[in-house]
Amino acid sequence: MALVTTKAIVLKSMRWGEADRILTFFSLRLGKIRGIARGARRMKSRFGGLLEPFSSINLTFFNKRNDNLGSISHVDSLESFSPLRESLDLIWAASRMAALVDGVTADRDSNPATYHTLVEGLRALVRTDDPPFVALLFQIHILSQSGFQPQVDRCASCGRDLGEHASRFSPSAGGRLCGTCDRGSWDYCLPMSQGSMAFLRQARRIPFARATRLRATGQVRREVENIVETYARSVVGKRLPEKDPLAAEPAAAPYGPPQKNVTAGQSGLHEHEFQSAIHNPQLIDP
Ligand SMILES: [Zn+2]
Fold first, then answer.
1. Residues 40, 133: one domain?
2. CA 155 – ligand 1 centroid, Å
3. Each residue of 195-245: pLDDT tens digit?
4. 3-state percent helix, strand, coil for the chain, nearest multiple of 5
5. Helix or strand holding residue 60 (H, E)
C-alpha cells in the first residue's frame, strides 16, 4: 500500500454507510480516481467542507494495489470554487462539466491536459456572465482532448473530403456526413451551417483559456449547442445533468438562456431545498 499525493478536482460524491463518502476525483497524476473518506459526514469531520463538488484540492490517499478505491488520508484546499455551489445556473454548468469529464475518461488514465482544462473551466465559470457558453466551449475541448473530436472537414462515415457547404452532423458517427452517407444513414442528424463549422473549428483550435473570448449568437449558437449536446450525450451514453433539477419549468433547450444568478435567499427555495439542488442526484447518488 503506497501513500500518493496529487492535485485533484472533486467530480462526484456519494454517501456511503453511516458516515462515509465515496468520491470521484479527476487528478493531475492519475486521471480519474475514486476514494473513500471515512467519517466525512460527521459534524466534526477532519475533512470539513473540503470535499464539496468542484473543489480543487491537494489529495493524499492510500493506494491499494488491485483496488480501485483508495482510502483518503489528508486533504488541503487549493481553490474551493464555492461560488459554483451558490447559484443554480453555475451548479448546472459545473455539473455538466464534471459529468462529461467523468463520462469520457477511463479510471486511472492520466491526462494532464484534461485536468488543466477542468481547472481553467471552473475558473472561467466563476468569472463569466454566460455559464452555458463556458460549458459549451469546455465540452468542445474535452471531447477533442479525449479522442472524440467532432469531425468537420471529412465525412465521419466514409472519410471523403467535404467542402464548406452546409450539411448535417451525425452524433453517432461523430461528425458531418457527405450527401451519399447522409442519404443512407438511419441516424438522427442535425443541421450544420457554414457559420457553425467555422465556430467549431475556431473553438477547438484556440486554447481553452482564450476560447472564452469567442462569441456565438443566434442560429450559430443554437446549432452548435444542439450538436455538441447531442454528440456529448451520445459519447457519454447517458443524458448529462439537466439545467436545474428543482426548476418549476423545464428548460426549453438543454442550453437554454441562463437564469440570473440565484442564491438560496433569492431563489424562493428553503435552505434545505437549495442545498438539495447543490447535492442533486446527478452529482450525488442516493
Ligand atoms: Zn460519406
1. no
2. 5
3. 999 999 999 899 998 888 898 989 999 999 999 999 999 998 866 666 544
4. 35, 20, 45
5. strand 56-63
Q: Is 262 among the domain residues?
A: yes
Residues 27 and 61: their CA atoms lie apart, in Å, by 12
Q: Which domain holds residue 265?
A: 83-148+231-278
Compute the distance from residue 168 Cα to the ligand 1 centre, in Å: 11
Quote the number of domains for the chain: 2
Going from the Cα of 235 to the center of ligand 1, the distance in angstroms, rounded, reads: 20
d(CA 136, CA 121): 10
One domain, residues 11 and 75 = yes
pTM here is 0.81
Beta bridge partners of 76: 58
Cα 234 to Cα 239: distance, rounded to the nearest angstrom: 8
- Could you tell me if residue 239 is inside a domain? yes
Is the domain of 8 the same as that of 71? Answer: yes
Compute the distance from residue 182 Cα to the ligand 1 centre, in Å: 7
Mean pLDDT of the chain: 83
Helix (H) or strand (E) holding 194: helix 194-205
Using the 3D structure, point to which of 26, 51, 80 is the last residue of a domain. 80
**pLDDT tens string 252-272:** 333 333 333 334 443 333 444
DSSP string, 4-38: EEEEEEEEEEEEETTTEEEEEEEETTTEEEEEEET
- Expressed in angstroms and rounded, the spacing between residue 185 Cα and the centre of ligand 1 is 10
